[in-house]
Amino acid sequence: MEDKNMLMIPGPTPVPESVLLAMAKHPIGHRSGDFSKVIAELTENLKWLHQTKNDVLMLTASGTGAMEAGIINFLSPGDRVIVGDNGKFGERWAKVAKAFNFNVEIVKAEWGKPLDPEEFRAKLSADKDKTIKAVIITHSETSTGVLNDLETINKYVKEHGEALIIVDAVTSLGAFNIPTDEWGLDVVGSGSQKGYMIPPGLGFVSVSPKAWQAYKTATTPRFYLDLGKYKKATDEDSSPFTPPINLMYGLQVALQMMKREGLESIFSRHQRLTRATREAMKALGLPLFAPDTCASPAITAVAPTVVDAEKIRSLVKKKFDIVLAGGQDHLKGQIFRIGHLGFSGERDILTAVAAIETSLVELGYDGVKSGAGIAAAASVFAGK
Ligand SMILES: Cc1ncc(COP(=O)(O)O)c(C=O)c1O
């Protein structure tokens, strides 16, 4: 049906109508007093969302741009960095670090499994000369639906004392509790088309005082992504370059909505949606790609064995106008992924589960007990 698309991918995520309407205004001058007020409000509310007093900087970039900025501003060529790689995005940060000639050591785990914090502890505690300058971790690995144990890995980074912790929170920020200041996270990157509930185009990086110390001596070349420029401008309620003004109008409304909902309620909603989705898939006899113990709050990856993943995905799209994500790289055709990030609620999950079940039946899979998926999701929503 025309204009009926329901996005259930891990980004872009659905955008509330009030946010869309807020963006449908004439842009104003980004050097005007009125726009300074917008930046001041956004900065204050971003700090609230990030649970930090650190700088939270806005870049005209996608999540990758935010992460690249977060990596290059605090390191120099030749620096020893440890990168966690258990999926597409961990792999990407290793590529970025190599592109800038850092001395990269990879801690790997199979796709679908979490990174082992013990491997980080071993490397960090053996580093008596403090040669490790940074540990780079993807918190929620979107390609597999795995949530890595950032809290424990960060604890070992803190025990090391020198290394910075640089976090890809692209699909965990605004979905999972990340107390930046309490945990002492140095650099946290994220992107607008995820938990922020606005379209793509803005990247966010939070920077700790310790990271700013490292910035002073870091020699990696940078210009547009030089975070010092963003800090100086943000301190004056301004931006170094022309920002995406209309996206920022949208962000104003989205952050106000999030504040009204409250952080705890946002996190528990994501937990509830994750559990309901997972229980429903189990009830339909569809195996989950990541274990319950490390389930991403943003995305559930499903690895059907008896029915082709792409057939389910395309039928759900064709029949119900619900867009699910496919697998990436070697997981193409092996898994489909259900997004439940940002502006996502119980109704969305019930609809998606019903659509998946109907599609399974239509595809001739007779292992489905009628209504089993909905019953499982409903039982989670009923608090059972
Ligand atoms: C965990 C994670 N990191 C980084 C990115 C890259 O973000 P972008 O596509 O906005 O550059 C994504 C995008 O899906 C992601 O899920």
Quick overview:
With 384 residues, the protein is of the alpha/beta class. Helix content is 43%, strand content 16%. The chain has helices spanning 17-23, 33-50, 63-72, 88-99, 117-126, 150-160, 180-183, 209-217, 227-235, 245-261, 263-283, 309-320, 346-362, 372-381; strands at residues 6-8, 55-60, 80-85, 103-108, 132-138, 140-141, 146-147, 164-168, 187-191, 202-207, 299-302, 322-326, 336-339.
Per CATH, which architecture of the largest domain?
Answer: 3-Layer(aba) Sandwich
CATH superfamily of the largest domain: Type I PLP-dependent aspartate aminotransferase-like (Major domain)
Biggest sheet record: 7 strands, mixed
CATH class of the largest domain: Alpha Beta
Instruction: Tell me the overall shape.
Output: globular
Which blocks of ≥5 consecutive residues have pLDDT under 50? none
